[in-house]
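Quick question about two entries, pasted in order.
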Amino acid sequence: MGRWLWMLGGLIVWTIHFMGVYAIASLGDVVTSADDLVWRMIGLGFSAACLLVALAITYAAARRVRRPAEPSVGFGDQLALLGGGISALAIVWQALPTLIGY
């Protein structure tokens, strides 16, 4: 189970980010409006936290890929690196509308 969590860690962070930003925007829309500055900053803070976790996974996976390992472990590290990189890029992409205020 630990290998699966490692390989899918970045994608899990991306999923949590997607659901969290959606929940923050929905809650902000119910309370005041989704484009209110306070709710935008809450969304950006959450996005920044998720981005840091995704970058940490990517960094750790990049360090592990450099070390020689048996093929199955190396493949898992490569998947973790790919998933972490894709999730970091996707989190930035999803946070851009909040950042520009649209």
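Here is the second entry:
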Amino acid sequence: MAGDVVTVGEVVLGRIRAQAEVLAGLDAAVRADEPDAVHRMRVACRRLRSAFRTYRGLLAPGATDELVAELRWLAAALGRARDREVLGERLAARARELPEECGPEQVAAELERWGTAEHRRIWPEVPAALDSPRRRALADGLAALLADPPLRGRADRPAGPELARVAAREQRRTAERVRAALDDGDEQDVALHEARKAAKRARYAGETALPAAGRAAARYVERMKAVQEVLGEHQDAVVASAALREQAGSSREPFGYGVLYGRQLAEAERARRALPEVWKRAARPELARFA
């Protein structure tokens, strides 16, 4: 660091170091299946992947490719069991809101049993992943990168302007995905999911900028998080409706499943309709002007 000028490299390395520490510190909690532990470890994986991809121009070419791939693998291995359990809980809660003629308690009980059974079936993948050579190699790789960061010369630039430039780029990238999703084509559900991932990456870029840009970055994070959340509501409803189609055939209350399926489609539609207004607040160019 030259004088009192904080460099963009220092800020990004601080982000990577903090998330690597979160990742390393959650092993015991994940093994014990403590509440929210799997979710927090997956988020740390995603934040690290996002940092490596978003700020790859600061790092030597190819220096983080293997780490990105292994972080993707670990997040997927962690997620399969928990995703099914959470989906079962979500659908059971929605089922209990059904009218009496739909057999709400029967449908809820079936969905809870399904979610619990899926979690138990898939859970052994989680400790197996944590005990694997790949997990140990990932930890070693992160430690090696932080011990000897492969920074390029541009990492010495002042943090503020560089972080704002990246935030603006991620905002534009999200705008492209949102526009594509709102075109209402045959693959709209896929396009909306891609827009969600872009909004999440933009949000993480804003989080990285927080130490240097303060309140300006916090506003950016807030707006991108709102976009991510409305798109997340859509994706959750899409996934839930697909699960209901799969499970309805074995239910004693197929009518209840049909009504619940219709409600999930309605939730997805409400999220789609909410998106333009939520995005409008996140699309303002001045939002990414941190300096």
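Reply: The mean pLDDT is 94. The chain is about 75% helix and 0% strand. Hope that helps.
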